[in-house]
Amino acid sequence: MWFCGLQAAESGNIEDFGRLFQAEPSRLRVRDSKGRAAAHQAAARNKLNILQFIDAHGGDLNIKDHVGNTPLHVAVEHESLEAVDYLLQRGVDTGVLNDKKQAPIHLATELNKVSVLEVMAKHKSKIDIQQGGEHGRTSLHLAAITDHEECARILDIAAITDHGECARILDIAPITDHEECARILLLKPTNWFQITEFGACPRKPCNNGYYPIHEAAKNASSRTMEVFLQWGESRGCPREEMISFYDSEGNVPLHSAVHGGDIKAVELCLKSGAKISTQQHDLSTPVHLACAQGAIDIVKLMFGMQPAEKASCLASCDAQRMTPLHCAAMFDHPEIVEYLVQEVRLDAPLDDDIGADINLLDKEKRPPLLLAASRAGWRTVHTLIRLGANIQLKDVNQRNVLHLIIMNGGRLEEFADGVVKTQSKMSLLQLLNEKDNMGCSPLHYASREGHIRSLENLIRLGACINLKNNNNESPLHFAARYGRYNTVRQLLDSEKGTFIINESDGEGLTPLHISSQQGHTRVVQLLLNRGALLHRDHNGRNPLHLAAMSGYTQTMELLHSVHSHLLDQVDKDGNTGLHLATMENKPNAIDLLLSMDCKLLYNYLDMSAIDYAIYYKFPEAALAMVTHEERGKEVMALKSNKHPCVTLALIASMPKVFEAVQDKCITKANCKKDSKSFYIKYSFTCLQSPSMYAQMDEKTGEAIVISKPIPLPALNVSLYH
Q: What start and end residues bound the annotated signal peptide (predicted)?
């Protein structure tokens, strides 16, 4: 029954609607599932009589539905012209924005409702033509985006006649290329002086700093662009001036047109006087942008229409000192690269050599060849080599093209074939052993990345496999560090494999040390099988020490199974693997070493492993030692000048760990609790005093003065913690 009023409003049956209203006046506020009231339904169906009735009886003509639309929004959407006219006559709020930030004027423009705009133009004094919607876009922006040229012209009538300015609403038309909207927005001006006086010019930006003409160019709205340019000319603003407007990013319309990729918009800009050498804030020209996008047709069009600008454009550098050739190379557009280098030169007069400089360097000292290689643009790399690019050049990191090809996964054999065919084999060989500023050769990077085919080709071409970098690391060290099993095998299978297997780096680390330190068990196994020697590094540490420090238990087990004598070896400071694993807080490694029956030794500072766990307050390391199934009691019995009683030290510094020790002292019978044989056995061994007891700091548990034994000292100390 409540919805009968909505149905009557929709059908325009004034008699039924009036009768229902008399029976229940609140029916004017009844809504459907979309939140639309009777006023919305009448506006949608252009039922003027219902709207008049609602208005006469105090109904709300600005009521919103669930998405923020008023009856005027709905009338615009359904192109209910009489309803639009009536609502505007009655002075409804034309500035209401719906949930999409659209006022009725924005909605009419975006939907290209030309007839609606013509009606709204009659009531221009009641409409804020300058109102911004989403992102501050006015109607002219929307007309430009959608190419609604007539909308733009109509909006201009409203803007000039009533407001005297080129309403920011005009900013919406360019986005959709609604050229009809644009025409309506821009139609029938007064004179340029009047427009300027009131600020009515197309240089009204949205919140993002874009002008309508830029939106039109960016969105390939060439028809709306023509409307803007004609509009400006009719008001004394030359095309050359309008086509030179800068947006917030320093783009002129030609930049925006190239971004949009519409060759018609680009051609229109060029015919209107836009210069292809114009630079934006980052100093890039439209030619830079077209080359980066791979738009070869646009590049040819620009050079064809403005041949006098070729030379300056080709030599022009952006903020990164990149030329258009750099831009094409960076994004792997070989067709444009070849055109810029060759075709442009061929098209030039005989006395001109206008082709792009193929070896010009950017800010990081990269010619187009190195830039393409760094971005994995292999088609461009091969094109540039064929065109004679200098392969000896290096970038700011002293890397040559071979470094970059290998680092980025290129195919060395294809590169080598291209160089040999178009240049010379000698020029290729000169690259093989060159070092970058890190001292790394191409072979170092092939080893690091595990590029087997590149590695094979480098070795085949004669690359030196034992070159050292600035850290005295060879390619084999790199392969061992990054776990490149096949690379290690390939290097060891080379002629000098037996000579490099035990080479040490700047820290005295051999490949076996490094692979053990990184936990690469397969590589460790390979090196052991090939006869790698058990050298010590500059700290006196063996591979097992390093594996323990890193916590790699599988590697530790492998090393111990082959060389069990490594277990209790000490480094220059007297530290065993157990010491080092504790210092690095590696509980799994600690547990394994204890299970391997390692000795509980003291280092040259008279410190045991448990002393370091307590000193550094590593609960994980301490817990692994004192709760070990087989060695826990042995660890608890250790004494040192630092901690003469492990029990008291644990209570003082890590009471939670000592709780775990006490829990281990509880033994329960292996039977049901209600059995007569059930028992719980408590051992107080951990609370008993050692035979010689040192007076201890009650807070830290550290020794102060040697004294006589004190019974159950742990109970006394626990009172303070």
A: none
Task: Identify the residue whose tokens are 């550094």.
Answer: 616
Per DSSP bridges, beta strands 703-707 and 693-696 are antiparallel
- Please name the amino acid found at residue 2: W
Look at residue 232 and tell me whether its pLDDT is greater than 90.
no
Q: Say if residues 374 and 331 touch (Cβ distance below 8 Å).
A: no
Q: What's the CA gap between 361 and 363, in Å, rounded?
A: 7
Torsion of CA 344, 346, 350, 353, to 10 degrees: 40
**Do 569 and 542 form a contact (C-beta atoms < 8 A)?**
yes
Q: What DSSP assignment string belongs to 45-108?
A: TT-HHHHHHHHHTT--TT---TTS--HHHHHHHTT-HHHHHHHHHTT--TT---TTS--HHHHH
Write the pLDDT tens digit of every residue in 252-310.
889 988 988 889 889 988 988 889 999 988 999 999 999 999 999 999 999 999 999 99
One-letter amino acid at 547 equals A
**Which burial class, exposed, middle or buried, applies to 122 when counting CB atoms under 10 A from its CB (0-12, 13-18, 19+)?**
middle
CA–CA separation, 510 and 152 (whole Å)? 75
Q: One fold for both 1-93 and 101-274?
A: yes
The structure tokens listed for 378 are: 């292999």
> What architecture is domain 101-274?
Alpha Horseshoe (1.25)
Count Cβ atoms within 10 A of the Cβ of residue 555 and give its class: 0-12 exposed, 13-18 middle, 19 or more buried: buried
Measured distance CA(254)–CA(265) in Å, rounded: 8
Buried-exposed string 30-46: b where 16+ CB fall within 10 A, e elsewhere: bbbeeebbbbbbbbbbb
Q: Are 114 and 183 in contact (CB under 8 A)?
A: no
Instruction: Give the span between the Cα atoms of 57 and 61, in whole angstroms.
Output: 11
23 and 30 in contact (C-beta within 8 Å)?
Answer: no
pTM, whole model, 2 decimals?
A: 0.74
- The bridge status of strand 666-668 relative to strand 680-682 is antiparallel
Residues in the chain: 721
125-173: pLDDT as tens digits: 888 877 888 888 887 777 777 777 676 666 554 444 443 334 343 444 4
Ordered by start, the domain boundaries in the chain are 1-93, 101-274, 603-718
Q: List the CATH code of the domain at 1-93.
A: 1.25.40.20
Tokens of 74: 């709905």
- State the pLDDT confidence band at 218, using cuts at 50, 70 and 90: confident
